[in-house]
Each structure stands twice: as C-alpha cells, then as structure tokens.
User: What shape does this take?
Amino acid sequence: MKIAVLGTGEVGRRLATKLASLGHAVTLGSRTADNADATQWAAESGGEHGTFAQAAAGADLVVNATGGMVSLVALEAAGAENLNGKVLIDVANALDFSEGFPPKIVQPEGISLGEQIQQAFPQARVVKTLNTMGNALMVDPSRVPGHHTVFLSGNDDAAKAEVAQLLQSFGWTPAQITDLGDLSSARGTEQFVSLWLRLYGSLGSPDFNIAVIKP
Assistant: This one.
C-alpha cells in the first residue's frame, strides 16, 4: 500500500520504518517539506517525505503519529479532501505537560482524541490503536514475551479489519488483538496512558504491556 505517516517524532519514524520494511510505499509527512528529521529518514530508508498534505494526498492509508495536542491542526493541514474515504489510524494521545509530570490526559467534555478526529473529518475511517504502549513494542510485540494485548476502537468494522491485518504484519497475533467496539471506547485506552506513564516510571523501561486474560 501507499501509506502516509504524519509526524516526524520517534513514534512516526518508528512506524514509518517498520511499514517500509514490510514493502509499503511510505511517505513521512511533516509541517514543512524541508523538515530535517523527515529528510534524514527518507535518505536512510529509501522512503519519501513531504508536507502533511503531500503525504496524505497520495496515500491509500494514513497514520496520525503527531503529538496529540496538535493532531487536529496537523490533520487540518493534511486536508479533509486527502483523508476522505481513507482508513486513518490514530496512535496519538493528547498529553498536556504544562504542569509537569505526570501529564494530564486532555479529553474535552470526556471525548477522546480519536472521536474528535472523527467528528472533524467525518468522511475518514478513524481507527484508534497502538496508543497504550511504547513505540518499539508497537512494531515488535515479541519484545514482551507471552500473551499481551493491543486494542482497536472504531466505528467502521471494515476499517478495523484492515488495521487488524496490518497489526498482524507487525507480529501481533489475532488472539492479542481486542476489538473494543466503537470510537467511544478510545476514551478508556487514552485514559490508560496515565497508568502506563506511572508504570514506566516505576519499571524504568517501556518494554511492558497490559494483558487481557480470559478463562
């Protein structure tokens, strides 16, 4: 597939590198076309880079890996016309560090970032996933042995099925993928990040994950 990864931070570059290694044609999108991190990533990976709009325009699927506090602005820059009808994977969490650590989870009126994105871009097919773990684990679940869980939230079942297939290409097994239902369930996974950050501070490593165990 042609995939646009929006966001040039560690999460965006990690996902873009994995997707490129799997044979996808990846464009790393940034606010400006001359972003240094995007330029370096493209040179090292053989992928492409461009503005948010340039990346999204030619993509079959779009990944939002921008900082959650600026995701809506970044997606507006990408352009609704470049998102319409496409699966939009949202891995971001809106974290407000203005008062230090731990950050606040920003959900205006209790609405998740995933839902805000869907409301702002109603023709996009938003799926929330991978936002409950460190970025290395996102693309390599074997970093944590045994059974552990990745969640899906979204209003479009076909979009979630497509994203589940992509997760399996990362190494996630069907038994590890839990569909939580519609996008309102993203409120819970985004709030979980508060606990994740505390665990990270206690354990001193991001190589851990939550596991849903059923009898």
Q: What stands out?
A: The radius of gyration is 16 Å. The helical segments are 10-21, 36-45, 52-57, 71-78, 113-120, 135-139, 157-170, 186-203.
